[in-house]
Structures are given as structure tokens and as C-alpha cells.
Amino acid sequence: MPEVQSTLWTEIAAVRRDGWHRVLNGGEDALDWRLRLIDSATSSIDLETFLWKPDASGARVLQHLLAAADRGVRVRILLDDSFTMHEDLALHAIDEHPRIEYRIYNPFARRHDNAVLRQLLNLGEFGRVNRRLHNKTLIVDGRAAITGGRNIADEYFGLDPAFNFRDMDLLFAGAPVADATRHFDRFWNSRWAVPVEEFIAAPRDGKDLGAMRAWLDAGTDTVPAEPPAARRMAWLAAAREGIAGEARFVADAPAPDAGSPAAAGNAALLAQQLLALLDDAREDVVLVSAYLVPTPELEAAIARATGRGVRVRILTNSLRSNNHLAADSAYRRHLHALLGSGVELHEMHALALDRDRYMRTPVEGKRIGLHAKLMLVDRDISYVGSCNLDPRSLRLNTETGLVVRGAALNGALRELLASDFDARNAWAVSVAPDGAPQWRAQGEVRGAPPADSPVQRLEDWFLGVLPIESQL
Q: Are residues 64 and 143 in the same domain?
């Protein structure tokens, strides 16, 4: 769709005509900008995400989307079906709004509120339902957008009382927004995107749109709306201070035929582009991935890079900070190859001393995990998006992100990541004199991955012997 002309967008364009970027590093800032972006919409909102919880942050996003729809904005929501258990009636209620269209990506035909039973009931279609949408993009009026690693739930915005993620997004304006819109349209119009009303029956117990509004209004975590004048000033400041760079929106393609398991794979376009960036590296690469389970292609590309003298540093989760134990188990099988190739490997400390940067204080009793996905190549290329460095992201799911050429953004991201690699916040993994891996952080040296308990170690070992790496 063409760019929308409004007073706000015209003012922003007068301040900044080139493409610009704002790093959304902290969780609450990332949530505030999502709400500000939604509240600025005058014509259209396109939102795609993998996970959306009905918690405090999820409810706030929904409230703002409903308010936008109430004032005449067309809202399109595309949600993956992986975590919609117990939510069918809520999805149908939201879809009742005349200005909101709600579609589910690759829905499970046999629906059940128990996640395990849902998977078992759909085993006959495993080739189809195994392909998931992991995209995370919010686009408003064709003028500005957000993409990155965050789903919509409290733990991605630093608001969970027990466990939060260190994540990363980019707010951006300029030419890549049009590419993001075309990407969204491509998925929206694919056979994978199924309107809610086609597979979820209308609610029969009063859980309609009115009940949904009442539930939202009764929420205890109500926050006053940002005044229009303050919103305008925030936008103008963001445009003035925005980081320049030549950007392109990158994404996988939806499968050509949602009904054919044989055709269910995506084109893996994004994975190919990331590998190409790695092969072009001349001096230095920084990789940040919540889940690190290198495919043979990725492992070979990393070895080629270190073999030609490129410094490769990687930050991923530790056993204690990882919210997917099976992913950690598979990652452990690659430790020797990664360390042997010369990679400088770091794992996030679940009790990072600076974790208050990413979650609401006080932090006592709270743990942190890594969820960001970045690639920094030399001093001028940056990727921020949804793609982990594992088989599921690189081969099975669809992913999105932004590749930006420019020293300013690359430098800003390196500065923000420096503390994450520091011994205050991450375990440095290296090879001990006896040839075994060792972990160093905060003055400690350990000969085994730091774990919560012997039971967690046993679970980690057991999952590591299962033949499931290709699905992680």
C-alpha cells in the first residue's frame, strides 16, 4: 500500500528524509514504542508474531489495537498456532471487530487445549504442522515498523516476576518499510494464513468482543494513554537521533502449497543470506543466538571464517538460562567443534550481575535468559531479527529481520552488547589443559556446565541422546 500522509508522518519526514533506525534494547522501551507505533496509526496496522500471551503486556497491546480499530484503522493480525491453547474463543471474539482481521498461520486441524494432546492428534499431518511462523513484525501506515526477537509477553519486556529475556528489536523508517509490507501481504494472502472464523466456531458462552473489552477494562495494570503532544515529541526526537544506514528487510517465503507436506518447506532465503554474510567477513564476526545448534552448513561457514583469520565471538544461553533444555542438550554436542575451530564462546549467566538493565527492579530472585538474535560482520554490517542459529530457524520456520549496512549502527550494537560478553554477565567457555571444556565467570571456574541441580544435568544428558536435533 502507498505511504500514508498525516500530520505526524509529514513532520517526521521533514526532520528526516533518509532511512533511520532506533535500537530497542530495553524491554520497557520496546513495549512503549510498540504502543506508540500503534497509537500513531491513522490507516493501517499489520502485526505478525509467533507468541502472544494474555498477560499484562499482551493485554496492553490488545487494548491499543482495539482503540486503533475503534478510530477506523484497519488492523490485520497474523499469529502462529503453536501457543494458542485455551485461546480459540478469545481469538474469535477479537475477530468480531469490523476493522480487525485475524488469521492463524498453519492452524492445527484437530484442536485441543492440552499442548501434548494437540501434537499427538495431529501426528498424521506432522510434515505440515511442523512448519511454523516465527516472524515478528509490526508495521504502521507503511511509514514505520519494528522487527526483531521479541514475542508479545511479559518476559520479553522485563515485566515477569521470575524470569525475563535479554532481547533486541529495531524500530525503522524508510524504504525497507515498504518491503516489510510486501512481505506481510505475501504471508497474509498465502494459503497458510487461515481466517479465524473458518476453523473456530463462534463462542456460545458469552465470550464475545464485549466480554473481551470488559476483561481488558477490569485489568489492574492500567496505564494512562500517552498524550498526543508527548507522542509527537518522542517521534521527532527518534527521527533526529535515529541511526543512519542502508537497510533491507529480509525474510523467508511462505510455502507454495499449505496442503502438501512435500511442498511444506520454505525457501530458506534468510538462512542463505546470513551464511553469505558470514562468508564475506574479513576481520570480525559477532553472533548472538538464544539457541545455538549449528547446522552442518553453519558449522562449516564458521570454520571457514576462523580458518581465514576472522575473529568469531558467539553469545548463547547457558544450561541455567536456557528456557528450552532440549536445545541446550543439542548445543553441547557442538562444543568441541566450535572451540576447536577457534570460536570465542560465551554463555549468558542466569544471574548476570547487570540483569537489571533488562528487567524491572528489584531483580533479587529473578533469572535472565537470552532471546536476542544478531549478527555483526566486520564494522559495517548488522543483522537484527527473529532467526536463531539452529535447524528450526534455519530450515523449518519462517523468519524475518533487517540487514543494515553502516558503521554507526554496527558500532552502537557492539557497544550495547559489550556488557553481555563481560565476565559479570556471561560464562566464557574455553578448553582446559586436559582438553575438556571449562566455564569461567564472576571469579568462578567450573569443569561442567553450571546447572540448577543434578536433576537438571540428568535431564540435559537424557535429551542429548535423543535423535531430535533436526527439529530444534
A: yes
342 inside domain: yes
**Tens digits of residue pLDDT in 398-445:** 999 999 999 999 999 999 999 999 999 999 999 998 988 999 999 899
296, containing H or E segment:
helix 296-307
| Grid coordinates belonging to 448 | 561442567
Q: Are 94 and 100 in contact (CB under 8 A)?
A: yes
Examine the domain organization and report whether 297 and 226 are in the same domain.
Answer: no
245/198: higher pLDDT: 245
pLDDT at residue 52 in the model: 96
Q: Report the alpha-carbon distance of residue 157 to residue 389 in Å, rounded.
A: 22
Supply the DSSP symbol for 221.
-
d(CA 105, CA 195): 9
Judgement on whether residues 290 and 231 belong to the same structural domain of the protein:
no
- Indicate if 108 and 31 belong to the same structural domain: yes
Q: How far apart are CA 64 and CA 71, in angstroms?
A: 11
Please provide residue 387's backbone torsions phi and psi, each rounded to the nearest 5 degrees. Answer: -90, 115
Tell me the pTM: 0.93
Q: Please give the grid coordinates belonging to residue 217.
A: 477494562
Backbone angles phi, psi at 165, to 5 degrees: -105, 150
Please give the residue range of the domain that contains residue 386: 268-471
Which residues sit opposite 446 in a β-bridge?
A: 439
In the chain, the largest separation of any two C-alpha atoms, in whole Å, equals: 67
In one-letter notation, the amino acid at residue 130 is N
Do the beta carbons of residue 38 and residue 65 sit within 8 Å? yes
Sign of the Cα pseudo-torsion (141, 70, 49, 407, in order): positive
CB-CB contact of 395 with 131 (8 Å): no
Instruction: Say yes or no: 205 and 306 in one domain.
Output: no
Residue 150 has pLDDT above 70, yes or no: yes
pLDDT in tens, 310-340: 999 999 999 999 998 889 999 999 999 999 9
Which residues make beta-bridge pairs with 46? 76, 139
Angle between helices 88-95 and 209-217 (to 10 degrees): 100
Give CA–CA dist 464/325, Å, rounded.
9
- Claim to verify: residue 308 and residue 236 sit in the same structural domain: no
More confident residue, 407 or 203: 407
User: Residues 448, 344: one domain?
Assistant: yes
pLDDT digits (tens, 9 = 90+) for 8-67: 999 999 999 899 999 999 999 999 999 999 999 999 999 999 999 999 999 999 999 999
Provide the number of structural domains found in the chain. 2
Kindly report the backbone phi and psi dihedral angles of residue 319, in degrees, each rounded to the nearest multiple of 5, phi listed first: -60, -45
Q: Would residue 154 count as lying in a domain? A: yes
Please tell me whether residues 85 and 222 are part of one structural domain: yes
CATH number for the domain that contains residue 343:
3.30.870.10
